[in-house]
Amino acid sequence: MPRTMPAIRKKRAEKGLIIEDIPIPEIEPDEVLIQVEAASICGTDLHIWSWDEWSQHRIKPPLTIGHEFAGTIVEVGAKVEHARVGDFVSAESHVTCGMCRQCRIGQRHLCPNTRILGVDREGAFASYLAIPEQVVWTNDRAKLSPEVASVQEPFGNAVFATLSNDLAGQSVAVLGCGPIGCFSVGIAKASGASVVFATDVNEFRLDLARKMGADAAFNPIELPGKDVVRALVEANGNLGIDIILEMSGAPASITAAFQAVRNGGTVVLFGIPSKKVELDVAENMIFKNLTVLAVNGRKIFDTWYKTQWLLSSGAVDVRPLITKTVRFEEINSAMELLAGGRACKVVLKPDQPAPLPVREDSLDRDPDITGRVTHP
């Protein structure tokens, strides 16, 4: 029986994606094979679909994309020590070298040799995915659905950025309410922020921010004089904001963050600008005695443990942010929906394939009750 599967692929250097039958991955001794149950679409996937300037310089077609997922392990390699067939898992998307200075001092998220799932190696928008055991994250199926488990990776970005400060009793503003910004609103509320404000130019996103707990939400376009700084300060009792999370990368939003924060406050920069941003460093940073943090990604695996608790305990409910669940065949229409700002997280559900045939090289190993290969 042929070992093939459907996968969502960037086949050519052009806009769009296709569904193609490709061979099911053959795992290396240190890898596991995962049957994907749910995979969520990331902003990175949207860039690849649109074939923008970043994608043109980074992506080398043909490639199966996607890196946010949840599924069940169906095969393990001979050198796998901890993962087991039947485990319900997700994964850290950054496969790091483990030997560079950053990896060795506990900064694996900054490894210069990182290979990202769905960007530098085959990704998760497929029926099956092969990954190294080192990036496997085990989920509790009783506490997390496949859909929610699939968004842990981007949720972790928000956890890392938002919990870089002690938020208890602090006023917080989240500027930019895409998925990460909306996640951050929920995390800030769960962390005891005294008040949480949100800003965005998209009313759909502002409504989601309110659902995640924002006490007030502002659309700069609709404000008199487009003065979002004044709106934030007035909403906070005519006081500057203690902690501002800039999640959009828009130059105007970055400028507003430094103007609206109180003297001695903190600005966390997470959004990535598409071009250079000019700032008045003296007036808006030095003279205000600000703490400025620039963060990217999440700590491997420190952030994952915090993410697990926030979601499994119910402290943060991300289900309002899952706009739609679609089949693989709807991938291009789902991308159009996201590109138009009419969706937050869209989850892909691959059709469940027939059980894999047992590999001949595994016949001398003991199968478990499902017929899949376990450890020798």
Q: What features would you highlight for this structure?
A:
376 residues; alpha/beta; Quinone Oxidoreductase, Chain A, domain 1; Rossmann fold; 6-stranded parallel β-sheet; 26% helix
Write the layout of secondary structure elements.
Elements: E1 4-10, E2 18-23, E3 31-40, H1 43-50, H2 53-58, E4 63-64, E5 68-76, E6 88-91, E7 94-95, H3 101-104, E8 115-116, E9 128-132, E10 136-138, H4 146-149, H5 152-162, E11 171-175, H6 179-190, E12 195-199, H7 203-211, E13 216-218, H8 228-235, E14 241-246, H9 251-260, E15 261-269, H10 281-286, E16 291-294, H11 302-312, E17 322-326, H12 331-339, E18 345-348
Parallel strand pairs: 11-12, 11-14, 12-13, 14-15, 15-16, 17-18
Antiparallel strand pairs: 1-2, 1-4, 3-5, 3-9, 3-18, 5-6, 6-10, 7-8
Helix pairs in contact: 5-6, 5-11, 8-9
What does this structure look like?
This protein is of the alpha/beta class and 376 residues long. The chain has two domains: 4-151 and 318-362, Medium-chain alcohol dehydrogenases, catalytic domain (Quinone Oxidoreductase, Chain A, domain 1), CATH 3.90.180; 158-294, NAD(P)-binding Rossmann-like Domain (Rossmann fold), CATH 3.40.50. It is built from twelve helices and 18 strands. The chain has helices spanning 43-50, 53-58, 101-104, 146-149, 152-162, 179-190, 203-211, 228-235, 251-260, 281-286, 302-312, 331-339, and strands spanning 4-10, 18-23, 31-40, 63-64, 68-76, 88-91, 94-95, 115-116, 128-132, 136-138, 171-175, 195-199, 216-218, 241-246, 261-269, 291-294, 322-326, 345-348. The strands form four sheets. Strands 3, 5, 6, 9, 10, 17 and 18 form a seven-stranded mixed β-sheet that branches.
